[in-house]
């Protein structure tokens, strides 16, 4: 299903209406970067000094710049897409967990608590990856449970601890068999894995040398490229420098945004929406499925 | 097994007979894009203004354009191929599930319902990914079951809920052992996973900045490139611009089509055919296998 | 272990002795493609019309062509390698299955049938992916079993159905425990998965737009490139066009061959050999292992 | 969440304050590499010998250099990222293991020992990958246990041996069921897998030919490139050579650093911090969870 | 931990001391390849024929050559790295297997045999991938066992058969439970998988067309490039051709070496060392762990 492709009703529109998103972000840099090229153009045009050189060096450097940009862009996107897969796994595991608890665990207070805890985990994880868990996000687990969680530092681990304890209790009371217990525990393992993957993506920035090298390189390149263009472009050199700098830094900026995808930037993943989806799915399973006590009436 | 390669009987034919697919799609854009270059050519040819520049800037910009196009193309294809793998997994899991239900679950009404539900899941998933489940696609599950499903918002989850409930019922009635129950439940888990992966691919568009940046860039490029070509190409510049724009936008257009592969565009995956294949496989297992009651006559 | 590298005793030899494989395949195309460039050269040389242009446009187009060729080549190779992995998995799963049946299932008619069916599966799958199952390939399963299979449309699924039924029979007769049954069933699941992956690779051609776009592009390129070369190369232009076309179409042709790797083209996978290997491994396990009845004499 | 992007307050600052990290590392090389180009410039400028050539050869060689650099950079990064994933897996597995031991194993001395051993494993692994295990890192396991470990050569394997023995003891004493035993053993398996992956990354340097070829190539390139630039750049050639060499060797140097990520270089992974995180998580589970004896009071 | 980077004490040294490894390998080719360019240079310099052309064709061809070289290099490396991962998996699985046998199987002759067979498997696999199993490598399994193996064609499969038989015997004698049996069998499955992956990598050369096309292309390129360089380089053309050919063929040669990594070439994997590591780990587990009979004294 192709999105709007027509140049006239879409691309042009986007260009001027996309709230100048990237342009605003890069505007102060763009201003600074015109200074050296403007000086150069002035010298070239008014003093008639022969400061141009042929295009071979900028061409060569452009190739290396391309290599660095491709690498930056791809690794950032890979990280973003991996994060999306992990969140997709969170949806799947939560649904599976909820369906299995529903069909295996006998009705009662513990079943309720389990379903609430499964629904609370995504909310806790989400804010754990941002600035600290917001307990009001999942007040549906009840005050008693909330109090228990508050004594922990690592809330998502705490939730899994409560889940596993409750599963052990159901096992001890004979509500589930040993195998069902292990099957259900596996879902909790999976939630821990997902949490760990999110933390890894969040806490592992790109190697600092890489980001450092690329930014320095773009900056140096923006200084050197006018020498290669001024003979043929004259005053237009300034525009050319601005354009090259803009595109290169756009890629860097977008990369920096999407490689930490759990935040609330325009390009970040719809984490809040995913949490709500999970909660709604669990609620639906809870309220619309056949009552557990009817399973024996075959 | 190479497909038709001969230029004469295949490529040429395709070019003129492929219903002008891409050309029709891009025609209005192509018209618009000729305007600036035509004006430029007219100025250059009639007014003899020296507006050309050497090719270094367009060359440099072309390299960056290449980077962006490669990225766009590869990510779209990866998504398409991942979607195909997920659908392949749907086929495999459904077959496995049907074979296992066939050999493990005792004959009876529940076995029938299970096999119907397994066959219905792909149809429900397919339309869930489009515009909403079409219940007549899988009327073979019977009206009673259809009614139960209609009370749910998320039909594919509902189907899995019905499957898991039925498995629990067979377990409670002693038809299968605890281990067989878990083995069968795993297939249902797998179906949920597959559904979640499809939803992820469907609901996660490329980061908007990326698609925005690329389209703006192609547009700007089509404005700038004539300055670099006009000195050597003259009026032919218009053709060159059209060609470059056509190829670049072809890649963008194809990418947009294939990255949402569950629809009904020419390049989308054969989802309907896959659903029918699964249904036929299940029917064959159901009708042609050895009756369950004969298993003890070894 | 490097293969023959020496230019003198290997590459040169290959070039002239490799049965002109690719050259024969592309020869009619190569003939056609020389026509426009020959006409162009004739006009240029005899009429002295200035139809050349500088190399910037062909250079730019060459870069985009490169992008498309890389993509075509890599996706085809990935598919080929994935197919090889899947076939490798077939070998592994069959060996595992045979070894486990050997050590777990009590001697008798059913054990024999199981081992024969495991050995028959690769042969059935192989021709199922080509033009239809050849029953004489695996006549060792006996006529009775062959008859049973013939009533099915999808023979590989039928074989797995027979396997799972037999495993259930052994379970019912007490020959294996419930867990051993599940362990053995998992091998059958794995065979179904492998079959599904093969079918996916076989039945999913590249998106038609991609292959269409690339061929048109190569063709257009072969028309345009002479204009950029004729000033410097003269009559040699024809040779240059032929060479560029040959290399580009070689990549396309090889890609088309290897991306459907289950056939019998020179570059296809050694499917028949793999089937025989599996059969021989199973036979060896069957005939050379310790008799099952000796397992208790520890 | 974009990091600081502004050229003025960040990039410039980094450039001069990043402790001249890469520049210091490469300084002696940079000195050496200026010698040939300086001699060349002197000859060219003072003797007026026509030693320049056009840029085609350096351009061609630059393309091949780019290929080698991309390859070097990507493989190093892939290794670094794989190492990060493995360490993330270590966090996940340790947490899972601790949670499961907590909910399954009855309180007592062995439970304590198990939790200590799980916490000790990351510390032992970390130094095993460096220069030898430092027992004081995990003195919390107690002197008796430390003594047992000291008699082994491969400490991380020894820790897993102690874990598995303890699990078997709990099984024999009836504290856990057979299935719980197997579930817990799987975590130990997983730790062994993680250890093996770390050892693989650590002990498998890039193929020596690759690193050799690339360094020779950069060196040769730095000799040849002045011939292509001297006509247009004059004395500036020296600066150009230094810049090209600096960027190329930066990529090589960063690659060498990050491809062995378990050390303590600036770009290495935060291994020590990860060990502490695991230890703290385990401590929290140990001290804040519901006492095991309360599980039956449902 | 960066390796030696300094140009002065490392790269230069490597260049002249690395035993002329690649140069020796390619020397006869390099000789041959100078002939056409020498003839060309002689004609150009002495006869003053204008046989040069501009650099556009070689430049274009160089781009396509780059594509082919990147592909060759990456696929070879991927295969090498996959092989390394598989061997890493062999280490992990063997350790896991040894640890589990140690803690689960009661002491006795069969336990001993099992541990020996696990240690023997890597040695058998290693030579199976080369020229045939060398039984003296693993004489520690005893003569009786060796005799049994000698009657088989596929020794690694035979070893797994012996392992599985022994596991079944321990099960029959009540030494392990059914679940422990299945857990142990899974390790044997894993060894079979690893073996199959090694065989796949070993037995699947690159598609012949690819390697053929690349070598022909490099050869043709070495013929054509002098025409593009001779005008500017004169006699230096010969050096340029030699360098381009050397670098291109170096990549091909290294690729051919590393893509079959189980041999004993300088760049092959340290297979023998890995086998010894596994053997030593198993010995350590065998000799230093707590005696099995002590497990009940909790």
From TrEMBL, chains A, B, C, D, E:
GO annotation, cellular component aspect: plasma membrane
Membrane topology: Multi-pass membrane protein
Name of this chain's protein: Bestrophin
Transmembrane segments: 21-45, 51-71, 212-229, 235-254
Keywords on record: Cell membrane, Ion transport, Membrane, Transmembrane, Transmembrane helix, Transport
InterPro entries, sorted: YneE/VCCN1/2-like
Organism domain of life: Bacteria
GO molecular-function term, one example from the UniProt record: chloride channel activity
Residue stretches in coiled coil: none
PANTHER family the UniProt entry points to: UPF0187 PROTEIN YNEE (PTHR33281), VOLTAGE-DEPENDENT ANION CHANNEL-FORMING PROTEIN YNEE (PTHR33281:SF19)
Name of one Pfam family that matches: Bestrophin_2
Predominant place of localization: membrane
Compartmental location: Cell membrane
Family, as annotated: Belongs to the anion channel-forming bestrophin (TC 1.A.46) family.
